[in-house]
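Table S7 (text form). Paired inputs.
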Amino acid sequence: MGVVSQPMSGKSEGAPAVSPERRTAVDNARKSWINRLIDPSRRNNLLFFRPLRDRTLDLSSSPEDAIASLINPSMSPVKLADLVNSSDLVTQAAKLQEIRKQAIVNQEERGLDTLFLALGMARWPASDDGRDYAAPVLLMPIAVEQTGTDRRRLTLTRAGELQPNLVLLHHLESQKVRVDAEQLIDLVEGDDHEEEFDLAPAFKYLTDAVGTLIQQFTIDSHYIVGNFSFQKMAMVRDLQELVESLAQHDIVAAMARDASASATLRSAGSNLQLPEIDAVTPDQEFLVLDADSTQQRAIGHSLVGRNGVISGPPGTGKSQTIANVICEFAARGKKVLFVAEKGGTGSRSEETGAEEPGAFVPGSARCRSVATPSTRTSGGCTGEDPRCAAARHHRCSSAVPRKTIQTE
């Protein structure tokens, strides 16, 4: 499925005051979206962690000085052999190889960095008599590298800033527990130069904040290497903080099933006439893949500024149409944001030159350049056309796009 829409500005120009009905609809939808993003079920290993035989590595018995070296901001590599007993090196190395392999898959296919060292484990009983809560307190991104051909020769290196488990903090907030995330991180000793490694001040701050609001809340000093994904929390924060902007935006309100917003979107561009397909001259057409009449009409709707959803069964040309839309906008000097949850989505873009240096790579975490227009045999974009050259070299931007294409 693909969505073509106007930019996500905070408020549409000339928008009337938000009605109480619209505000209620958006607020209800906003809460529902937050709950769906968080996943409070026992599938979420950021709330209900459990050790897995081949997918987690427990370093809780590692020497304190080795753990301190690992979290040191100097980001120096630490040998796995310094973290585990020599008698367990083969088994632990095999585990770490599996964890590393899964992290690579997550990065390549979903654009997510999921490899972390979890520091501390918060535990408290569940109210439904099911498996108790077990939530990592702090997460530190790490990199695992193999040196040489020996699969046991692995090193772990700190790869970024220490951060709190935002899923845990969100859950605590739902229980009326207020925790300052920045203060929690600041209390970690050993995260700065010239400090002795000590997590106790940070753990004490969290347990004091919980107080009696959650019974039997404790924190264990566990160190776990594994794959943890909480990137959706950025969307959760936006949904929590941009309440007014969300209510004012027609597309968001329509997604929340507000009737007035839906009517406004349906009427957008209704006074504009699409040119006949055969009337479009070759110097005004920049299709890089074949398109039938229905696909060309969908592209035409996008070009005149109409909002729309491209949907259909597999193999009906949705990705092909999206690739054409990208190049049509790029040829006109427009900025395009392409979003794909799965690495395979948008594979049609590869046919337009993604194998060339600097070309757009679908499913990657970054957008380097839009797809490269190629010569067509029947009109449209040719290598000599200067506007095609502009499309070929036009760069994507992370700034607010004039059009948004989102694939699912």
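Next pair, protein 2 of 2.
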Amino acid sequence: MQRRGQVDLRAAARFSPRPSVFHLDRHYWRPGWVPAPDDEFRATQCALVAGERWIIDGNYSSSLDLRLPAADTIVFFDFPRRRCLLRVAVRTARGWGRDGQAPGCFERIDLAFLRWMWHWHRDTRPRVLARLAEHGRGARQVLLSTPREVTGFLDAAREHAEAVDPGAAGANRAGGALT
């Protein structure tokens, strides 16, 4: 369950000229938290990034080599551990009994996931940053570490959309929802 630093970018999509929004958890997990086979998951991601305009929500660092070179903008949410743990607890409590991450995958918190989150900054973050440097060189990279930075980023996206197409984003004044 790759949840660290996720942000609901559907709000940002409202201010962009109609990108498709994909949540990788929905493509990776099968009912009962069974992972998709690696070759199938990689093929799915290749198909997703072949589209013209898209937003992909999800970490899955083992396949960043597929997504990063195809991206024109990479937004990396780098929140502190305590904020991530609190938000996972709140999201899990709100979604308890629902399959919000993927069909047939009901909200849960297990020891393995908590361990992964606890050690994320030490174990996973350096690998993600190395892959960003290696595979994301051609993209604009945005690092967001606080809710205020996220709000600023979403406000800038809204302003950009309004400048490109006045009135297009005016009816959609929703802000980003951190999850």
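Confidence is low (pLDDT under 50) at residues 1-8, 169-179.
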